[in-house]
Specification:
alpha/beta, elongated, single chain, 336 residues, 13 helices, 2 domains, Rossmann fold
Length: 336
């Protein structure tokens, strides 16, 4: 039985650490790694030559679109193993319909996002950023000492999670050792299913008005577009914090900025819509906003998990086992 041809397609600068040499060696043991340098286009002569012998295509961040041209050039394609999260917009429906198996590494990317969210929740509860700013501005503790008597801290607070996604569920598990009350809005789960994972099911209005910290973990879908709007934000407690590590389009950002400008709530924002806010955006300047450049997901050495998950899926494929993280065309409708 011939060993399957394996080709990489991703942007090297965006995927450093995904496939260190040891993982590339392991890939080479599972099949014929046709080139250790990834493709960045499917339209040049090198791509056409490599795709001709490709049975397994390994994609990642910055990969070109996988569609009819790839199916035509790679007539023996059997598996696309995506060493990153969502494949929406990257892998065309025609690939699924052609019978090509597809897997992704979203579960690996969920780990650092959940860890980031836990850190954000704990820092928000203790008002760490406000303490930091006040201490640095004063260079003494005349104002930070009295702040310790405020109604802050992480004991007995209510955390509201919007969405029991793979990340949302990881956050639920990470919160279990702490003294939080965790409530959840997810219309796809029943009250008993919520209880089984250790949270209380509530509607969105109740969550927004009850939670001290609201953390978003819903996918970006037509049904979730701007679900956090002026009305929902108006329900939040004074001093509450909104955390968004999901997708920027879930929030009506003009409504959020208007609310934040009053100083009534705080926000920890890792994702925006557009992905990079205009240079004049108040997100950069408001003192009650902690803005990060979409870093909650895998960065640096955390990216190696993505490559490991893809290689594990390839190992399952070549050994005749079912994929652990296989996805179908029907899954695309509910992906972030």
């Amino acid at each position: 039985m011939s060993r399957p041809g394996i080709v990489l397609a991703m942007h090297p600068a965006r995927t450093q650490h995904v496939f260190p040499d040891g993982l590339l060696d392991r890939l080479g043991s599972l099949g014929r790694l046709l080139d250790r340098e990834p493709l960045q286009t499917f339209s040049d002569e090198r791509a056409r030559r490599l795709l001709h012998d490709t049975e397994i295509l390994v994609t990642g961040w910055g990969a070109p679109h996988v569609g009819r041209d790839v199916l035509s050039a790679a007539g023996g394609l059997k598996l696309v193993a995506h060493a990153a999260g969502t494949v929406k917009g990257l892998i065309g429906e025609e690939v699924f319909r052609a019978g090509v198996a597809v897997s992704h590494a979203a579960e690996a990317n969920a780990i650092p996002v959940a860890e980031f969210t836990l850190a954000a929740i704990l820092f928000a509860g203790k008002q760490v950023f406000r303490f930091r700013d006040t201490y640095v501005a004063d260079r003494n503790r005349d104002r930070t000492h009295p702040m310790q008597r405020l109604a802050i801290g992480n004991y007995g607070r209510t955390v509201g999670l919007v969405g029991a996604s793979r990340i949302g569920r990881r956050v639920i598990n990470l919160l279990k050792p702490f003294d939080f009350k965790v409530i959840l809005f997810d219309p796809t789960l029943s009250a008993s299913e919520c209880a089984a994972i250790g949270v209380e099911k509530v509607d969105l209005d109740t969550l927004m008005s009850s939670a001290d910290i609201v953390s978003l973990h819903a996918p970006s879908l037509p049904s979730t577009h701007h679900m956090i709007d002026t009305q929902k934000l108006s329900l939040m407690k004074d001093g509450a914090t909104l955390i968004n590590t999901a997708r920027g389009a879930i929030v009506d950002e003009q409504a959020l900025l208007a609310t934040l400008s009053t100083g009534r709530i705080d926000a920890i924002i890792d994702v925006t819509d557009p992905e990079i806010p205009d240079s004049r955006s108040a997100f950069y300047d408001l003192p009650n906003v902690f803005l990060t450049p979409h870093i909650a997901g895998a960065v640096g050495f955390e990216r190696t998990r993505l490559g490991e998950m893809a290689v594990n899926e390839i190992n399952r494929h070549v050994s005749g086992q079912p994929l652990q993280y296989g996805i179908t065309v029907a899954d695309l409708d509910n992906m972030a």
